């Protein structure tokens, strides 16, 4: 895709849309697959002094394909007392929010799905849809474990959306725009107190916001230490307990895809997105290099997410809520105030 | 109670049944959550019926017996060596420790004392089983609380201890090594150096657990102040072992009542903690593992030479009598009450297992806690189902 | 709540293990080699050798066996099946009486029932049973787990020599009879 705008301009609208749809699907699923293999199977195993799957394919690289095959041939169970439509629709609702999220992420100067002036606002709004999906799964499973898991998830996800959004507001103030592409350019062309060597990646100048976003992201993904909704040793798998076969796989892929997409958003907001210092952001080569750079940053951020996930025990529900409401939200509000003051002063 | 007439008894039972029916129909007391026999949290087939009000427990009753294997009946038709082989499987994680009180009771009845070398090696293996058992606990409690990695570290480092047990007894999990009058065989060459190396690795493991789990603020927030057992309540329920030592009670059968084991000749310390909460129980067990590794090093340095078995006949007939021997097993105090009528098989063996008494405090302890705390408390009490149900 | 120092140290432990597994030779050879660094063994491609005393399977040295039935009697699971008959063997010296010996017809151990406790090996007065550390004899059919006399004699080839004892022991090292 050397000169994307010209190419895209020549295609009919339906051709452009189908390209975007295929691209979107590939972006989500490939990232999810890579993350599952790299992190869940390999890096975490190395952290635990073992090797992970090694048999399926060289060094176990085809293990995910084998798992997909295994899940496909399982019986599709629906509990007898389950609310049928709600139970069946829940995984799709969760996945819909992930796919909607990925369209706002820019992968290069011309490699984007939509270029909306309210990009990050749209992302934050859409990410709340998954809460409904989890609640549907919890209720529709007609099982006490799932219900407990679903209710815990709802409380947790609603509570942690606020620090997420407030951290993003700090970035928006600094960048001056809600357009995701605009935020990348603001970091590329910005400078830290006059030195423009690496641009202005916001994880340095908005460090508090970055930390807040990472913690809130961990909670939004229901990863340990915030995985009360799943809480394997108490609730078996929480809201996912009654799902089997392909539907469980949808939840599983959804979990990793969401991790990837949230990390992509974090990379755009705080790490400078597809920009690498040294190469002019408008150069056409960035359309090829940009996705690779983004992938590297996504892998790096998800490594952090999974490192925390496999090291720490989990919080109890009330401790989790205390952390969100009493610590993170005040800090986020203070961050916004300070950012605003510094933005006007400098 | 004085004699109650049959009529009163029947009307009392009928009233209870009527209450139960009303509660069931109206569900007036909240949701019943069945932490059923198959559950990732309970160490085996333990069932806890918890009545919840939202996330708080109103009452929690453990239902035991899903793994009852009828040990005490089995021992009535098995000879002493066969009983020793079976008894390994009561607490299958620290299994040598199950044989020891039984063999000591039989030796008491036969009036036979094992030679000093056998007693020392018996104590070494006893402490090795403690290290293996409690290191599993350290990884497992962190797993119950959500951290998956410490459990892997526990299994990885426990291998060293199990390899040592296998090198001398032939079996990693079921040594079947104790005999009336001594031990089955002596140590193979090179075992002492290898075991000292294994103990160094276990001390490293303890340091890692301290950094990874004990020092973790989330772990502290989950376990400090949870499940506080006051010392007198614990003693009245029959708690023993690290559970009661974590409530400040300075009681250790190895020091107070050593019977055939050589703990009295070693320089070691009993660890207690004043708090009595789940954090304290974890802390006490961590220190105990360290202390055991140091004890094993001392014993290996000072091992006396000599025969490994006293003179006992080939086919053992224990003279008539009764004997009760208690030892400080990894899970708590385990005792065997052996009644013999002078035959090849014991007449009756009563097994006092530690976990059965430890879990009896669960209904009292679990009142009013949150659902996640049920898991924390059960994990910190640490029971093995084979030990509860026998 | 002071949330930071313990958490960072915990991360250090897992991060350290990760680095040690991926780079087992430390700074000297910064090439990732997790297969060497991991503490697990890739069974069945590589196998750990069990110690010589490991209780894998029981082997029978038929010449020593006199069908005294002690092992079958003492087995807690009654998984040893023995049938024998009495024969007249030639006298030891010329001009003597023919001796009565027990001959072994059938000696089966059912490894589906065996609990690998070793009471039979201990109790045999003629040292006809030996432990071998072989453990890979699983079968698709349970009936094939009944090892008969010839199979038990085959296991004798895998029985290792008895090890020497530690210093300070007064036990004598026993000898495994040559097959």
In short:
The complex is a heterotrimer of chains A (346), B (390) and C (179). Chain B is of the alpha+beta class and 390 residues long. Chain B has helices at 6-26, 71-74, 80-87, 96-110, 116-144, 149-169, 191-214, 217-223, 231-237, 242-245, 253-256, 278-301, 354-359, 362-365, 371-381, 385-389; strands at 31-35, 47-53, 56-63, 178-179, 182-183, 321-329, 332-340, 348-352.
Q: What is the count of helical runs of chain C?
A: 5
CATH architecture of the domain at 114-313 and 366-389 in chain B: Orthogonal Bundle
Distance between the termini of chain C: 71 Å
Would you report the number of β strands of chain C?
5
Order of helices and strands of chain B: HEEEHHHHHEEHHHHHHEEEHHHH
- Straight-line N-to-C gap of chain B: 32 Å
Q: What is the structural class of chain C?
A: alpha+beta
Structure report:
By secondary structure, chain A is mainly alpha-helical. In chain A, 68% of the residues lie in helices and 0% in strands. Chain A has helices at residues 4-10, 13-47, 63-72, 84-102, 119-127, 129-140, 144-175, 180-189, 202-205, 207-220, 232-235, 245-270, 286-311, 317-345. The radius of gyration of chain A is 21 Å and the shape is globular. The mean pLDDT of chain A is 82. Chain B is α+β, with helices and mostly antiparallel strands and 390 residues long. Chain B is built from 16 helices and 8 strands. Chain B has a 3-stranded antiparallel sheet. In chain B, strand 6 and strand 7 (332-340) form a beta hairpin. The longest helix of chain B has 29 residues, at 116-144. Chain B is globular and about 65 Å long. With 179 residues, chain C is an alpha+beta fold. Chain C has 5 helices and 5 strands. The radius of gyration of chain C is 26 Å and the shape is elongated. The termini of chain C are far apart. The relative contact order of chain C is 0.17. Chains A and C meet through helix 2 and helix 13 of A and helix 1 and helix 2 of C.
